[in-house]
Amino acid sequence: MIALTPNDALLLIDMQNDFCPGGALPVPEGDAILPLVNRLTRRFEHVLLTQDWHPAGHISFASAHPGHNPYETFPVPYGQQTLWPDHCVQGTPGAAFHPALDATRAELIVRKGFRREIDSYSAFLEDDHFTSTGLAGYLRERELHRLFLCGLAYDFCVRASAIDGKNLGFETIVIEDATRAIDLDDSVDQTNALFSEYQIPRIQSSSLLFF
Ligand code: VGL
Ligand code: ZN
Q1: Which phi and psi (to 5°) does residue 50 adopt?
Q2: Which of 58, 137, 175, 208 has the fewest CB atoms within 10 Å, i.e. the most exposed one?
Q3: Average pLDDT over the chain, rounded to whole?
Q4: Which residues contact 67 (CB under 8 A, 6 or more apart)?
């Protein structure tokens, strides 16, 4: 069992309709983690959520690049962008949190990817690796030093958020069974290798919950 303190926070990534089966960019079994996620939110004193929140015509949408298809890689000024189906468009039902998510105890919702010309997988830094969401400052002011991450998708937004969090000086831990992956090419293997390299532990929720 891991003992939790008031300086720990649960950071739940992108638990939105479009990332669940039936959504625009479904993560396989994305909704299967909801019962576990809801239990985890009750274990932590501080719960923070992220919400992927794109304007229409967002740079990450294949539809914004005529002749290109979802899941292709496309060069943009800040690097190589994976193109996606239109998803999590601001104000649409797909961008809403899954109805089975119990967000009652959430203290903060960080929206990301709202600039048309920059994608943001990470809860901390947009994909230019420079533009800040403000989350690091918020966590420091509130003395939330240790972060437990879960949500969607393991190999994109959970991965980027965990690595940036670690780089920014937070103790960062991923609750593996409370995530699901998109699994594009070798994205899961790459994620596991990066978590090892950055010394980001992967734990199971049984380390946090009494069954
Ligand atoms: C995500 C792809 C595009 C994620 C967000 O939440 O992992 N993946 N936008
Ligand atoms: Zn997105």
Answers
A1: -110, 155
A2: 137
A3: 97
A4: none
